[in-house]
Design goal:
- The chain is 38% helix and 23% strand.
- It is built from ten helices and 13 strands.
- The termini are far apart.
- Helix 9 packs parallel to helix 10.
Length: 304
């Protein structure tokens, strides 16, 4: 059987995620070669994502490799995939999701409410910054970039008191370190967090085969709702948007959030139904109706 080429970024986390998918395909008798491709984020490792402000910062070069035929499929953290993918490309599969929650990492095992007054918390995410400041305005949020190991090292060297990372990434790397899960009431996850997205050209001859082996329908419905909300909000790396969705027996429940960058304004909405796209759009429109458009418009003006 002709082998498939899997494209991925080269971080330990990206490789661990890709190997999980590759092993599933190999177990079904499909040979898979893993090929590392550097993306914009790898070439600009010290710049905050909000400064780069490109929606395909993690995906562009992998997209180009798919379009040119250099790889057969790519494995991404789904939260990194823009809501609009290039023409002819699709998210072919969404494997079963890990816990989408964020985690607070520190040698002391702090929970958010236990952090000392004025503690320094490291994150490169505007979503995390906004929600943490809303809950704890006294915190000092400092920007941090690099792979998981680099971020942890920087914190241990004293650049911050604690670090916020996706729990799913820590679990996939099997890191044994002190961390506490941050409740969704304090910090709603990113759209698609904890899930993987497998992208392919829709006319690839083995598209359906890969989809049938890797896709989890409940997870797919959950992230479809979250991404529909994000698309309606026209959000990107510079918009503090949070979402969490659960799907079971054809029913989807979705929670959404939009916050100002300083955490002063937070809008929340919930919805449920059987059509993930419709649920996502409805929650987004609820948020906009509450006044979230004020935040979105201000951020859009700042970009131009």
């Amino acid at each position: 059987m002709t082998h498939l080429i899997l494209g991925t970024r080269g971080s330990k986390l990206a490789l661990a995620q890709s190997e999980t998918c590759a092993e599933t395909l190999r177990a079904a008798g499909i040979p898979v070669e893993v090929r590392v491709i550097k993306t914009t984020s790898d070439h600009r490792p010290d710049e905050p994502l909000s400064v780069i402000d490109e929606r395909d910062v993690f995906t562009r070069q992998l997209d180009e490799a798919l379009i040119s035929g250099g790889i057969d499929f790519a494995v991404h953290s789904l939260k990194d995939i823009p809501t609009e993918v290039p023409k002819g490309m699709r998210i072919a599969a969404v494997p079963s999701r890990h816990d989408p929650s964020d985690a607070l990492v520190s040698d002391e095992g702090y929970e958010v409410d236990d952090l000392p007054d004025g503690a320094m918390v490291a994150t490169s995410s505007l979503r995390r910054r906004a929600q943490l400041l809303h809950h704890r305005p006294d915190l000092r949020i400092v920007d941090i970039r690099g792979n998981v190991g680099t971020r942890i090292r920087k914190v241990r060297e004293g650049e911050a008191d604690a670090l916020v990372l996706a729990k799913a990434g820590l679990d996939r790397l099997e890191l044994d370190m002190s961390r506490t899960v941050i409740p969704h009431a304090v910090l709603l996850p990113a759209v698609g967090q904890g899930a993987l997205g497998i992208t392919m050209m829709e006319d690839h001859p083995r598209y359906e085969e890969v989809r049938s082996l890797l896709n989890d329908r409940n997870t797919e419905n959950s992230v479809l709702a979250e991404r529909a909300m994000m698309r309606e909000l026209e959000g990107g790396c510079r918009v503090p948007v949070g979402a969490w969705s659960a799907a079971e027996d054809g029913e989807i429940k979705l929670k959404g959030l939009v916050a100002s960058e300083d955490g002063a304004l937070v809008y929340r909405a919930e919805g449920e139904g059987s059509d993930p796209e419709e649920v996502g759009r409805r929650v987004a429109r609820d948020l906009i109706g509450q006044g979230a458009s004020i935040v979105l418009d201000e951020i859009q003006e700042a970009r131009t």
